[in-house]
Design brief:
The protein is of the alpha/beta class and 341 residues long. The chain contains twelve helices and eleven strands. Bound molecules: 6-O-phosphono-beta-D-fructofuranose. GO terms for molecular function: 6-phosphofructokinase activity; AMP binding; ATP binding; diphosphate-fructose-6-phosphate 1-phosphotransferase activity; fructose-6-phosphate binding; identical protein binding; metal ion binding; monosaccharide binding.
Length: 341
């Protein structure tokens, strides 16, 4: 069998672990050939690929990013890929394509699968917002980075009697903010799923200072927004990939708190630090398992499917199921962390 693999969308710790696992299982386990397309679907459309053998993936398990490069692709070019997908598969001589990516990539994978390409998807995103899998790799790493940041910010905040507003990633789902906020013991957590009232945050900080705890750390997801009438905040525009450009809730909230409290409030935007660097052991294991199962699925002819973690088992789910809705933080998970909302 000849298998094509690509990584698309935003990068994520663990992508290299999947690539390595696909190559190991395919080459050493099945005597397959593997080729890697560069820069996601762009490489597939533009004919940029390279052979991947065991040497090519040696030493990449712990490396962040992706050795293949990654890119987002405009919808029009994706349609082009779907329209020509049988011809594309034939021209590369591939019997299976394993795209590794988030919601956008899996939607593209579904388009290709519907058009006749033999596809097995592998989900990735630090946001953990793909509904068909209990976990995506990259999330554990991102939560670890954000938690460490909160831990560190607490000591400096306390030394200077400041309020720190830590902005973490999470466009539509606040999983990173929820879990890092809980793990780091943030005093406030703001999620996209539940508009926050800035007056509640002001009250919380004032009560802490009155109790002698003269600092506070608030963890806010980049996609969080204030409740109507709570504070002025403009939504961002939509970019060419259909993503909202964020207007900087961390900066805006810190300025608002400083103004209302008359105390120093500093924003800290973690940004791509959460996505860079080495994956945690958990993410390496999950990524490796997904790669192994994707190759097995290809050999069984289980196309149009995606690997998924259900409980402790890796299973396959239809790509159609994976991209119907985002997995957002449910109300009961927010209630568990209620004391800090
Ligand atoms: O979807 C993953 C993610 O890391 C989001 O959390 C974040 O909003 C987005 O990607 C950032 O994307 P880019 O690197 O293209 O700005």
């Amino acid at each position: 069998m000849r298998i094509g693999v690509l990584t698309a969308g935003g990068d994520c710790p663990g992508l290299n672990a999947v690539i390595r696992s696909v190559v190991h299982r395919a080459v050493a386990g099945h005597d397959d050939e593997v080729i890697g397309f560069e820069d996601g679907f762009k490489g597939l459309l533009d004919g940029r690929f390279r052979p991947l053998d065991l040497d090519a993936v040696s030493g990449i398990l712990a490396r962040g990013g992706t050795i293949l490069g990654s890119a987002r692709l405009e919808r029009a070019r994706l349609r082009e890929a779907a329209e020509n997908c049988e011809e594309l598969a034939r021209s590369y001589g591939i019997d299976a394509l394993i795209p590794i990516g988030g919601e956008g990539t899996l939607t593209a994978a579904r388009m290709l699968a519907d058009a006749g390409m033999p596809v097995v998807g592998v989900p990735k995103t630090i946001d953990n917002d793909i509904s068909a899998t209990d976990r995506t790799f990259g999330f554990d790493t991102a939560v670890g980075v954000a938690t460490e940041a909160i831990d560190r910010l607490k000591t400096t905040a306390e030394s200077h009697q400041r309020v720190m507003v830590v902005e973490v990633m999470g466009r539509h789902a606040g999983w990173i903010a929820l879990e890092s906020g809980m793990a780091g013991g943030a005093h406030g957590i703001c999620l996209p799923e539940r508009p926050f009232d800035v007056a509640d945050l002001v009250k919380m900080v004032e009560e802490r200072f009155a109790r002698g705890k003269k600092f506070a750390v608030i963890c806010v997801a980049e996609g969080a927004h204030p409740a109507a009438g709570s504070m002025d905040y403009q939504k961002g525009e939509i970019d060419q990939y259909g993503h909202e450009r964020f207007a900087g809730i961390g900066n805006r909230l810190a300025a608002e708190l400083e103004n209302r409290l008359g105390k120093e409030a500093r924003p800290v935007i973690l940004g791509h630090v959460q996505r860079g660097g080495t994956p945690t052991a958990y993410d390496r294991v999950l990524a490796t398992r997904f790669g192994w199962h994707a190759v097995e699925a290809a050999h069984r002819g289980d196309f149009g499917m995606m690997t998924a973690l259900r409980g402790t088992e890796v299973t396959l789910v239809p790509l159609a199921e994976a991209v119907t809705e985002l997995k957002r933080v449910p109300a009961d998970r927010m209630d568990e962390a209620e004391s800090v909302f």
